[in-house]
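Problem: given the chain below (156 residues), write out its structure.
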Amino acid sequence: MALTKLDQLYRAVILDHSQSPRRRGTLDKATAKIELRNPTCGDVIQVQLALEEDKITDVRFDGSGCTISMASASMMTEAILNKTIDEALHLSEEFSELVQGNEPEDKEALGDATILSGVAKFPARIKCATLSWKALEKALADDGTGVDGQISHDID
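Solution.
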C-alpha cells in the first residue's frame, strides 16, 4: 500500500519532532514539574513549566518513549509556550478531541500537533499521544499554582 504525499509529509514531521525534539531538557527554575508514566507501554514523560502570573514563560520536557509520545511532547511545548494557563488547558482539551477522532473548535491553534489526528485510527496509541498533555494538565492542577517538588503518577 503506497503512502500518499500528504501521509509521507505527516510521517516526516512526526519523525522530525521525535528525532529532534523541541524544548527537550530541564528547567533550573521550574514552577511546576510532574512525571507521568504510561504503564501499558512504559513511556515516561517529565514536564517542567515556568509560570509567571498566569502565563507559561518556559516549558521543557524529558523522558523516554515511542515516536508518537516524544513527538507529541515536542509539539505540545511549542503549542503552549507563552500561553496563559487557561489557553494551555484549552489546547489540551482540543488535542484530546483531535486524537479521539473529533473535530476540535480551534484546530489551527494546535500547530504541528494537528498532524497527530491520525492516531484516532489506532486507539492503543491515544495514550501515547496524550501522555505529555495529561502531564501538562496535572502540572497545572491546583488552580495553576503548580506542583511542589517532583510528583510521579501513572496515566489514567
